[in-house]
Specification:
Strand content: 5-15%
Modified residues (4-aspartylphosphate): 55
Oligomer: single chain
Domain Response regulatory: 3-120
CATH topology of the largest domain: Alpha-Beta Plaits
InterPro entries: CheY-like_superfamily, Homeodomain-like_sf, HTH_AraC, Sig_transdc_resp-reg_receiver, Tscrpt_reg_AraC-type_HTH
Radius of gyration: 27 Å
Organism: Cohnella fermenti
Keywords: DNA-binding, Phosphoprotein, Transcription, Transcription regulation
Number of domains: 4
CATH superfamily of the largest domain: Nucleotide cyclase, GGDEF domain
């Protein structure tokens, strides 16, 4: 008989399902109950659970996080997802791509029984296969469940240079994922930049919607191809699209059409605007160059939104004067990752390979400064901080000899690295954004307004702010407005309508809902509580 686990932080909802669903008719022999993710994990590790019925919205850990944990543990459990937010019905298909069914709360028992019957059949089929070859099936399921994680780790390692970018090393790494390098000799990378939500979302809701956006990318951009969609350490979503052997006619036009379909679908169903930055076809061992160029294009773009931007139309990469020198973007990426020694080695290797002249050293002098300025600006620092009042040799002095140039280059990179490390948790950009929010609490600020004020791409600013503060930018603006509202409620006799208007809220009801979202009380009840406490 099939064993089912119900996971929901609403105890009465769990009890209602236990008593209201006809479990035996669905082929279920045992039903377990859990009221939070930690309790569910204990049961999943202790009992052989076939089907999990799980609420998405739970405190501490969401249902999606519980599902991801179960996948990491290689637990062969089928999942039915529940949520009370009807506006998330458009995410149903995206979630089903991960092997789940989706129902809205309050659950209609007949609907759940229908979905449950289908899910039970899938679980029973697994049991039959297991009976035919229990040991084989155990390891086959273990492998199949971990294979997507291994593939994602491969691409992360390749794009972060943890795998040597040569044919032999890549082929060996792919063999560990059961993939023949000949199947993906050439690829096109698509960087998906989420630029704006078109409706208010909480931080948890944004996480769920970002998950749905990534799953939709798998469905639409990859279609039936054997590509992959990953999220890198900077928060970018990257689609790796295989290029057909020989570059089939129309493949580029097909990808552009799929990108447009994807942008339209995300705006219609997920209430967000995003752009697709499309790289040129490249050999897999050269994918890192395309990846860096896409990052640069997204960072520099401040004028086009909800667009398809192809690098062949807008070449944004900048290189050293000599084609044999390392790419400016590669050196910038190494420095930004804190890999100063690697950047110095790469620069030194090229110096030894070239027949250098005063002219080439002078060109490299200016190019290296561009690298440093580029990295400092991405992290929100002024280039003036690099000098710190010290005297630096100019291009003429540094290019006097290779020895002088190497000494200067080492000093510049060391100073920049030290600056980035010492200010890693206090970016001037984030500080300036916070100051602007404080000064303009009476206005209806958007992410685009703040990005324009600090001369950054909105999507890049959002990732930078979240990485350094742990908060979504819109949530920070809301909290600061409500903090100011609470101060005014406590220290002035201004009416609640006046306070709402002074903070840029023309709709009193909306202001009250937002205040209650932060403080758990309406503004009126909050003020009454304060007066009672005096």
């Amino acid at each position: 008989m099939i064993r089912v686990l119900i996971v929901d932080d609403e105890i009465y909802a769990v009890k209602g399902l236990v008593s209201g669903v006809r479990w035996e008719e669905a082929g279920v022999g045992a039903v377990f109950e859990a009221y939070h993710a930690a309790m569910a994990k204990e049961i999943l590790l202790r009992e052989e659970i076939d089907v999990m019925i799980c609420d998405i919205e739970m405190p501490e850990a969401s249902g999606l996080e519980l599902m991801e944990w179960a996948a990491e543990q290689c637990l062969p459990v089928e999942t039915i997802v529940l949520t009370c937010h009807s506006e998330f019905s458009y995410a149903q298909k995206a979630l089903q791509l991960g092997g789940t069914d989706y129902l809205l709360k309050p659950v209609v028992y007949a609907d759940l029984e229908q979905v449950l019957a289908k899910t039970v059949r899938k679980a029973q089929e697994k049991r039959k296969v297991s009976e035919l070859g229990d040991l084989y099936q155990k390891y086959a399921e273990l492998w199949n469940s971990r294979k997507p994680l291994l593939i994602e780790r491969f691409w992360e390692d390749l794009l972060e240079r943890r795998i040597r970018p040569d044919r032999e090393a890549i082929a060996a790494a792919l063999a560990g994922c059961d993939i023949d390098v000949r199947d993906i000799e050439r690829v096109r990378l698509v960087l998906i930049s989420l630029e704006q939500w078109e409706k208010p979302l909480s931080e948890r809701e944004e996480e769920i919607m970002e998950y749905a956006v990534r799953k939709a990318a798998e469905e639409i951009l990859l279609a039936s191809q054997t590509g992959h969609v990953i999220r890198d350490r900077r928060g970018h979503t990257i689609a790796i699209v295989p290029v057909p052997e020989g570059g089939a006619d129309g493949s580029e036009e097909d990808l552009a059409r799929l990108c447009r379909t994807y942008l339209d679908a995300c705006r219609q169903y997920f209430y967000c605007r995003l752009s697709c930055y499309v790289g040129e076809p490249t050999a897999i061992e050269e994918a890192i160059g395309s990846y860096l160029a896409l990052q640069n294009a997204e960072y520099r773009n401040v004028s086009r939104m909800n667009a398809i931007i192809e690098l062949k139309e807008e070449p944004l990469d900048v290189s050293f004067p000599s084609a044999a020198q390392p790419s400016m973007l590669e050196l910038a990426d190494l420095l930004e990752q804190g890999k100063r020694e690697e950047a110095l080695r790469a620069l030194g290797e090229k110096l030894r390979q070239e027949e250098l002249t005063v002219e080439t050293l002078t060109g490299m002098y200016h190019s290296l400064l561009q690298v440093v300025y580029y990295v400092l600006h991405r992290r929100g620092f002024s280039a003036a901080l690099l000098y710190g009042g010290e005297g630096w040799p100019d291009a003429r002095q540094a290019a006097k000899s290779v020895e002088r140039f190497e000494s200067w280059a080492e000093r510049v990179l060391e100073t920049a690295d030290r600056l980035l490390e010492s200010h890693s948790s206090a970016s001037p950009v984030v500080q300036k954004v916070k100051a602007i929010v404080t000064e303009r609490l009476s206005e209806e600020l958007t992410r685009e307004d703040l990005a324009a004020a600090v001369f950054l791409n909105p999507a890049y600013l959002s990732r930078l702010f979240r990485k350094e503060t742990g908060m979504v930018l819109t949530e920070y603006i809301l909290q600061e407005k409500m903090r100011r509202a609470s101060e005014l409620l406590a220290t002035t006799e201004s009416s609640i309508s006046e306070i709402a208007g002074g903070l840029g809220y023309g709709n009193f009801s909306y202001f009250a809902r937002q205040f209650r979202k932060v403080y758990g009380e309406t503004p009126h009840d909050y003020r009454k509580l304060l007066k009672r406490a005096k």
